Amino acid sequence: MTFLHRPRRSGSLRAILGLALTGLLVADAAVGQTKLMSPHPRSVQRIDYQGWPNSLLLSNGLVEAVVVPAIGRVMQLRFAGERDGPFWENPMLATQNTVPDANGWANFGGDKAWPSPQTDWNRIAGRGWPPPAAFDGRPMEAAIEGSTVVTLVSPIDTGFGIRIRRRIELLPDRPVMTVTTAYEKIAGPPLEVGVWVITQLKDPMLVCVPLAGSSATDTGYVPLLGGPPPDLRVADGLLSLTRDPRLHRKIGMRAATLVWVGATELLRIDSALMAGGKYPDNGSSAEVYTNADPLTYVELELLGPLARLAAGEKLERVSSYTLVRRAGSNPELDVSRLLAGESGPP
To answer: Does residue 345 sit within a domain?
Structure first.
């Protein structure tokens, strides 16, 4: 879900946010009760990860998340006790000795957040690429809250006047990570912006997207780069595709859920749609990017609605990541089971 926090609110907006906060308090109470009964202890510990010291490992006994404050990313989500997971990590940049590309961008991998729409970057930040400086690859301040939560806080981006705050938590007794991404407007004139969360994942067997409504075209998707993948299919409201090794491609659609299918596991990423919200890229609340060889990865991206943000205001969005093992050998059937809540054990 997405919340826009303003210092002064009208009565109607206050009522809406009050209902939302009430729901959050009820959810917190339920989680608190679950904690007392949890057979899986949760923990956060400092580790050295791929050459980055002071990285953080969160565990709930079922899954683990690796957070690297040095580059402001969630670098991995994996089953507890395993060495690897579905998040893609650039093997050429798995140390502190990074080598940016010709544009000055270091493609580390993992999970991050950028401001949308990208078409405004040049006007606001003074460059269309690479991403605005504070949003990508810069060190972030990390804080540990008890044994359950890690918070990352970025420096203020000079162009956008925004500070990014990300709260990473593993839910008790569920193979689920939640990431709350907040954009805090600190300085500068008001601007229209949205929270855009990008998760880089390994080359999949399949990517599936349950469509949530009409898009700018009657196909259910909008081509954004390179045209649609050659094996893209839409059937019974479910869009599916694989990575094209020859050409970079990107499509947008109206959806709240994206599913990555690996050989033995599934990753489901969710972030709620806002009815009537204004979304970038021809109304896209979700996007899938597939990278061409030699870097074999895809990006599953969920976008929040655009909002006008003034100094002192905050825009917030919650994403959840559910990691489960595949129950069978049929990718489409495994995805259907996952979407129906009938997936295999974590």
So the answer is: no
**CA–CA separation, 291 and 203 (whole Å):** 9
CA 37: distance to chain centroid? Answer: 29
The number of domains in the chain is 1
Does the residue 188 lie in any domain? yes
CATH number of the structural domain spanning residue 308: 2.70.98
Q: Would you say residue 194 lies in a domain?
A: yes
Residue type, 15: A
Q: Does residue 74 form part of some domain?
A: no
Q: 251 in the Ramachandran plot: left (φ > 0), alpha (ψ -120 to 50) or beta?
A: beta
- Which letter, b or e, does each residue of 62-80 get, where b requires 16 or more Cβ atoms within 10 Å of its Cβ? bbbbbbbbbbbbbbbbbbe
Domain that holds residue 306: 2-42+114-137+156-339
pLDDT tens figures, 237-275: 999 999 999 999 999 999 999 999 999 999 999 999 999
Q: What is the pTM for the complete model shown? A: 0.88
**Counting every residue, how long is the chain?**
346
Instruction: Report the distance separating Cα 149 and Cα 206, nearest Å.
Output: 31
Asked if residue 82 has pLDDT above 70, the reply is: yes
